[in-house]
Amino acid sequence: MSESPERISMAGRLRNNFLTGLIICAPLAITVWLTFTFIDWADSWVTPYLPQRYNPQYYFDVTIPGTGLLIAVLFITIVGFLGKNLIGRSIVNFGESILQRMPLIRSVYKSIKQIFETVLREQSTSFKKCGLIEFPSPGMWALVFIAGDAQGEIAAKLNENGEEMVAVFMPPTPVPTAGFLMFVPKSKIVMLDMTPEEGAKLLISGGLIAPDYNPDGAVVPALPAPRKKAAKARRKGGEETTVIPPAET
């Protein structure tokens, strides 16, 4: 005699449907909201400086989202194109020479430029790997992003014992917008195969969303979709039996 499946109450079904809908709608709504918020922010910076005759809103009398963002992208691209030739490079060097003569502004400009050059460098390996370090005490492990090898004075001071030091960034959970910059011996870091995107998901979710891991590198086949009826009951000789469908190959 087969056991009858446990019935779910109407309230339970409504709750499950609501949670399923929330999982579907919430990420979509948040993504749309963040996208339009960023577009509005870019438009608010660029659109007020456009001459009226170049503003589409002047002709259509309708606000077109993304106009300022598109103009900003085109402007930055053109500046980058001009900055690669001799004339554009000369203009950039002239502007930088003026900034270098300003006591406070030159420090801010130099720091910001170094950050962008490091992050946006095509051959840079910064924050492309994840690892684990023992923190805050032995036996307790924290997820970190590998920034790169220690350089300059820090490398000279810390590498005196022959141990190669690595700069790592350890963000907090669940909002990884700040954190600690630490220099750790390379031998003390457990390197991970997960990508920085997967590591960020793990941090933001508080450990709930863990990336899949297959150490052998083999492709794990997807499980077949569950059948609507796993067993079909039928009566034979007055007895109720259960027929189990054969496994799919």
Automatic annotation (TrEMBL):
The chain crosses the membrane at residues 21-42, 62-82. It comes from the Bacteria. Keywords: Membrane, Transmembrane, Transmembrane helix. Residues 224-249 are annotated as: Disordered. Residues 226-235 have a biased composition (Basic residues). PANTHER family: COV-LIKE PROTEIN 1, PROTEIN LIKE COV 2. This is Putative membrane protein. It comes from Aliirhizobium cellulosilyticum.
